[in-house]
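Hi R.,

Here's the chain you asked about this morning:
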Amino acid sequence: MNKLLNEIKLSLSDLDAGLKGTLNITETMEKLAYALSMNQIPPSWLPLAYHSKKGLSIWMEDLILRCAQLERWSEEFETPMVLWLSGLFNPMSFLTAIMQITARATNQPLDEMYLRSDVTNHTDIADFTEYPETGAYVNGFTLEGAGWESGRNGEQGYLCEMVLKELSPEVPTIHVSAIRKKDRPTTGRYSCPVYFTTLRGGANFVTAFDIAMESEDTDEKGWILSGVSLFLAPE
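And the predicted structure, written out as tokens:
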């Protein structure tokens, strides 16, 4: 993040100096000015930036929120009650840390651990007043290819057919914990891929969460054919 912020500050400072005539206008400055005028992320920022398909104005708002979370985290030296996972450059490192902590606490090898994901029925972080006994609460996910039916009376929600005009519904806060691979539920769950953006595949892939389906008899093939996925950085 610091490298990205330094590049933004330096490049904008150079462009300002160039427009004022105190520096010669370079090709890099011209590309920066063009990108700014077209509401695009400048080419010199992209190599240091995180995955995103947002326009520049929305991307900047997102960047400010990411910095704010990191500042609060560093000042308080406590993991947020509900972590905005999308705000991390490398969310998989945080998820791996959950497995490492559990592996040490249970004296299990790390490669025998598996991430368990349980979707809560809450989207408001104010509803969470205590840390979970294990793992962490994370949010910032949207869904594509399906809808989400919230649970009732304390029951967990589940995947459902898409609701008309809701192309990317927000998924409630997820409780991520670590369990042994042999204890992983094998029925009633869809192994849902998690991506940074809707480009999917390749470097955009983060991990996979087991998401609850309506019943243990539901066949996940329908969700696979629908391309149901979770995304950290929706457009």
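Residues 69 and 110 are 28 Å apart (CA to CA).

Let me know if you need anything else.
M.
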